[in-house]
Write a structure and sequence with these properties.
single chain; 170 residues; alpha/beta; Rossmann fold; five-stranded parallel sheet; 7 helices; 5 strands
Length: 170
């Protein structure tokens, strides 16, 4: 199974991914930000940059499946439109089915607080980008994943809700 966690930066995708893999027998996390940042300067607006990052994610997943016996993957990233998410789902479905997608969202004041806790040097820029991504994702047309409001939930509670949803849909 592939689980894709979509959402603005600071919403808790990576922390949720770490908690979520505890529910699987043999799972790994593939984080688009880390892979994209290590491959090249990642630009969400550049289709080639996006496709390159997803191709690397797919290659990593295939490698981990073959060499380490990983059967399930949690992919965290920002998919700003349904086309990006569709491409990711299509390529990742070659590795494992089903592919479940979740859109994590939160209230602006909570998002700001979460971004500030990241202890990054440029909090103002990251907060502005988090707000921008949140607006983009909330107003986008098409499938960006099943929406989950994480505003008043702990990371453990978010992971539990997603896990329950996965179990109900099987």
């Amino acid at each position: 199974m592939i689980v894709i966690l979509n959402g603005p930066l600071g919403v808790g995708k990576t922390e949720t991914a770490w908690k979520l893999i505890e529910y699987f027998e043999r799972a790994a996390i593939l984080d688009c930000d880390y892979v994209g940042g290590n491959v090249s300067t990642f630009d969400h607006q550049d289709p080639n940059s996006f496709r390159s990052t997803i191709s690397c994610i797919v290659a990593l997943a295939k490698h981990q499946k073959v060499t380490m016996g990983i059967t399930d993957f949690v992919v965290s990233g920002v998919f700003e439109n349904s086309e990006q998410l569709s491409i990711a789902k299509s390529l990742l479905s070659e590795i494992s089915d089903p592919v479940k997608t979740y859109l994590l969202l939160t209230k602006p004041d909570i998002l700001k607080n979460r971004v500030q806790k990241r202890m990054n040097d440029n909090v103002e820029r990251e907060t502005a980008r988090a707000y921008e991504l949140s607006r983009i994702l909330q107003t986008a047309i098409g499938d960006l994943g099943k929406a989950f409001d994480t505003s008043n939930l702990t990371i453990k509670e978010i992971a539990e809700k997603i896990w329950k949803d996965i179990q109900l849909s099987q």
